[in-house]
Fold this sequence. Notes:
Elements: E1 3-7, H1 12-23, E2 27-32, E3 47-49, H2 55-64, E4 69-72, H3 79-84, H4 86-106, E5 111-117, H5 140-159, E6 162-168, E7 170-172, H6 190-199, E8 205-208, E9 220-225, H7 226-241, E10 247-251, E11 256-258, H8 259-270, E12 276-279, E13 288-289, H9 295-298, H10 308-321
Parallel strand pairs: 1-2, 1-4, 2-3, 4-5, 5-6, 6-10, 7-9, 8-12, 9-13
Antiparallel strand pairs: 9-11
Helix pairs in contact: 1-7, 2-4, 4-5, 6-8, 6-10, 8-10
Amino acid sequence: xxxxxxxxxxxxxxxxxxxxxxxxxxxxxxxxxxxxxxxxxxxxxxxxxxxxxxxxxxxxxxxxxxxxxxxxxxxxxxxxxxxxxxxxxxxxxxxxxxxxxxxxxxxxxxxxxxxxxxxxxxxxxxxxxxxxxxxxxxxxxxxxxxxxxxxxxxxxxxxxxxxxxxxxxxxxxxxxxxxxxxxxxxxxxxxxxxxxxxxxxxxxxxxxxxxxxxxxxxxxxxxxxxxxxxxxxxxxxxxxxxxxxxxxxxxxxxxxxxxxxxxxxxxxxxxxxxxxxxxxxxxxxxxxxxxxxxxxxxxxxxxxxxxxxxxxxxxxxxxxxxxx
Length: 324
């Protein structure tokens, strides 16, 4: 049985990865400081409450568990916050990751799956975005992810670290069994924000700009179900453990949906009218942000199972009945 250490495994994406790995008979060790995650979301008895800044705590985990690979999700991920408090992002997302990598090297763990972001690309020069698109992040969050990508690449050359760097677009949805879903302390993602207007948590949803050069004037984004993300991570892990070469892979559906289209699908699924308010554009919002479908080449065994209707349907079921 392979032992996989998932740092940040109590968060939204991390908890879905943990559940998927457990269902595939991996032994999963979760390490999380619970600053953003939830202990209730962790489908593993092997849980350690700790911070990746804490070398002694990390060493204890590696010392007592023969780790085969690390999956790293322990990053702060609020773009706006990163602009006003970059120190927080560089300390945790970059410096603490170096600390994690040091423990990996100390205990001869040479495989890592790193949760990166399309934010490393900045304003798109073309869409859909492929893995060779120039990386010019426009905020400290994206910059911190790109720094770690480069650090991992340097560790690969110097120390033989093998990696899969997965750059997400917009993770969405919830597990169809209703056990886990999106529950951020500060919510910034469109789909749950729209649905919260129907549960009474929000009065309305703001549409930031209706004059973009898109079919309906609102921004277009690429959404992928969190369970599809989990499957892509597991397949990437299996490839890495089988000796496949290190890769950078974009993870999206390759299809974009506008803000108005998302609201329309939410209304169809719920049978309710979404209270929307037209607001000014936000600085730095590109009209289109969609991924190429190169994952078909890089991850031949990965086939996304959820379309936008199913993404929103599972999100709505979670929003109505969420457990934490």
